[in-house]
Design brief:
about 220 residues, mainly alpha, elongated
Length: about 220
């Protein structure tokens, strides 16, 4: 491992990243649990609807992972975890750390949400019915997977395994930012203008999107 370009201990920086990842997982689990009840608790406030589940559909429950994890990873940016630990980093080093952090955020969020969908439909399809504790376990397993994926990408520059050759060049920063932004916008749009497919259907009421029917297509 070539760490000559670092002026701080990479193990110390990695330790900080590991602690941040674990604490963020715990915080996301707590926030996701709270968000599950937020819409009803605050009187079905339409301002909260784009960010918290408004019914029991699989799509709406993806918000429990997406927004808490996104909040924690944005906090990580302000805490400096997307920056090179070098005192005088090169432009290449700065871009590497930022790109890997944002790639990890994007892949982690998408991977975690896909994990919820795959596990939910596979397990409940096999059983033929829902069990609450299994659904809760799916949420935490998927959140853990999201952070595992994030850490695998965000930690790459510390090990100097990030290649700058054309095949594995650093991702332009706008790519993961666009993926995350578009996903957030889709949550907002589909809350009010909901596709009439199974992923968006509340299995308890048969409704789509907002439970009061506001702005349904």
């Amino acid at each position: 491992m070539n760490t000559a370009y670092l002026t701080k201990s990479p193990s110390k920086s990695l330790t900080g990243l590991r602690i941040f990842t674990v604490l963020s997982f715990l915080a996301s689990g707590f926030l996701g649990t709270v968000c599950h009840f937020a819409y009803d608790y605050f009187g079905k406030n339409v301002m909260l609807a784009p960010f918290v589940p408004v019914n029991e559909s699989t799509w709406e429950h993806l918000k429990l992972l997406f927004f808490p994890v996104l909040i924690c990873l944005i906090m990580g940016i302000f805490l400096g975890f997307c920056q090179s630990p070098s005192t005088h980093p090169s432009d290449r080093s700065r871009h590497s750390f930022a790109a890997c952090y944002l790639d990890g955020a994007a892949f982690g969020l998408i991977g975690g949400m896909l994990s919820i969908v795959v596990l939910f439909y596979t397990i409940n399809g096999f059983l033929g019915f829902n069990i609450d504790w299994i659904n809760i376990a799916i949420f935490y397993i998927s959140t853990a997977y999201a952070y595992y994926t994030f850490y695998r990408y965000a930690s790459k520059p510390y090990y100097n395994t990030f290649s700058y050759n054309e095949k594995n060049a650093a991702t332009p920063l706008w790519v993961p930012i666009t993926v995350i932004t578009v996903t957030a916008v889709l949550f907002a749009v589909f809350t009010f203008y909901t596709p009439k497919i199974g992923l968006f259907r509340d299995p308890q009421t048969g409704s789509y999107g907002l439970t009061n029917g506001l702005l349904h297509m």
